User: Which sequence fits this backbone?
């Protein structure tokens, strides 16, 4: 007998951190297209955020919780459960970057990167997991990175945080293995987001080259496909991980990196 898996997230509520732009916004839109109600989170221009919220249709909240503050994270999850009824899908995407050699890396930047890129995911999962277990269904998707699997110079905090996030993913997957809750990670390579654009601009300025040449150099260094992944593609993988077809995908790290980690 061939079983057909259909994707329908109508009635599900998804919290997506760092979703006012880039990968997070792409993931939120992909989940909304499948019927999920959305909680957007992140920083940015208030008018642009409100415009994005209204563009989703359905039930879409915006919560400005600071991902470096555990109290605000817990309050965001509690608000979603109160106003929308549940948190069924949690996508941990919030992230920042700082590049410097280890001996020059500011201690406060290390703490900030670890807080937002790793600890915030612990706090969101800790807050959302009891409700998921109680309802017997949940999907936790951690947006890690190729840098959760391999390293690059100058990115000590980011690499440490993303490796840690994959470790956290595995632990949560094991602790929920006999439940209807799954936890997995997506590991993008270069995705053209505002965060990556800053690195392109910095490279162009440092090497006194054009933006297009900087993009080519960035891709050629790591990503054999020589093409950026897109937020929409990451969103599609997140949708798959929320489907019944992925019910036994647990503790996995799915690379979307143009061959980066295949080398």
Assistant:
């Amino acid at each position: 007998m061939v079983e057909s898996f259909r994707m329908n997230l109508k009635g599900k509520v998804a919290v997506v951190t760092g979703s006012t732009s880039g990968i997070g916004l792409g993931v939120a839109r992909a989940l909304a297209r499948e019927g999920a109600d959305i909680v957007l989170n992140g920083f940015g221009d208030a008018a642009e955020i409100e415009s994005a919220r209204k563009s989703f249709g359905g039930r879409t909240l915006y919560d400005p919780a600071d991902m470096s503050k555990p109290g605000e994270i817990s309050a965001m999850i509690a608000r979603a459960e109160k106003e929308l009824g549940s948190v069924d899908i949690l996508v941990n995407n919030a992230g920042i970057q700082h590049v410097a050699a280890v001996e020059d890396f500011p201690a406060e930047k290390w703490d900030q990167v670890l807080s937002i890129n790793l600890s915030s995911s612990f706090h969101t999962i800790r807050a959302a997991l009891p409700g998921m277990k109680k309802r017997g269904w949940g999907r936790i998707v951690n947006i890690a990175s190729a840098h959760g699997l391999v390293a690059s110079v100058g990115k000590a905090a980011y690499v440490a945080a993303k490796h840690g996030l994959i470790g956290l993913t595995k632990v949560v997957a094991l602790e929920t293995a006999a439940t209807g809750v799954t936890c997995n990670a997506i590991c993008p390579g270069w995705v053209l987001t505002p965060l990556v654009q800053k690195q392109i601009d910095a490279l162009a300025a440092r090497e006194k080259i054009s933006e297009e040449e900087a993009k080519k150099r960035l891709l050629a260094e790591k990503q054999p496909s020589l093409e950026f992944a897109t937020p929409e593609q990451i969103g599609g993988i997140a949708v798959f991980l929320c489907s019944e077809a992925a019910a036994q995908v647990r503790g996995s790290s799915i690379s979307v990196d143009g061959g980066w980690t295949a080398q």
